[in-house]
Amino acid sequence: MQSTPKSRARSKTLSAAVVGLTMLAVTATSAGAEEVEYRGSGYLKNFTAACAPKGYGDPIFVNAIYRPRRLGTNGSSTRLSFFLQPFYAMSYELPKGRLGDRFKKVVGGATGTATEFFSTRPRLRLTDTNPGRINLKTTSLSLAGQIDNFDGIKGCRADFELGLNYHP
């Protein structure tokens, strides 16, 4: 069969359509195939008396990162990290499951001049999440909650309130 200008044009159109659909499919799948992370800031506040010896008072401005479980490639853990001024960070991880309004034991650690896991196991709960259900279309959210044994201090409880935005 001999190629005509009309058949060549159809072939080019078909090739362009296949390439376009392939790019669309790759883009659509890659959006769900990345880590989903929310970054923002807020406050740690309402510290109990047990927190005072380590210098915690109300309120403390923090930057934060929240990685909910099972969104994109995040896996089964939920992670919440706080970055305090000037050079101190702490992170909490629920290895499996979902954070909710009941306290759950989490793994916690901090880094400043050294990195350590907390010997007193912290517990964390969310008291408010807006929106209530986070999915791949969620662009911003607010989180509020409490941490028992905050910063590894036995009996220290802190509340947090955060405003976070999706960060690709």
How many strands, what sense, and barrel or not for the largest sheet?
A: 10 strands, antiparallel
> How many separate structural domains?
2
Radius of gyration over C-alpha positions, nearest whole angstrom: 23 Å
Strand content: 35-45%
CATH topology group of the largest domain: Porin
Write structural notes for this entry.
This protein has two domains: 1-33; 34-167, Porin (Beta Barrel). It is α+β, with helices and mostly antiparallel strands. It is built from one helix and ten strands. It has a ten-stranded antiparallel β-sheet with strand order 5-8-9-10-1-2-3-4-6-7, with no helix packed on it.
Quick overview:
The protein has 168 residues and is of the alpha+beta class.
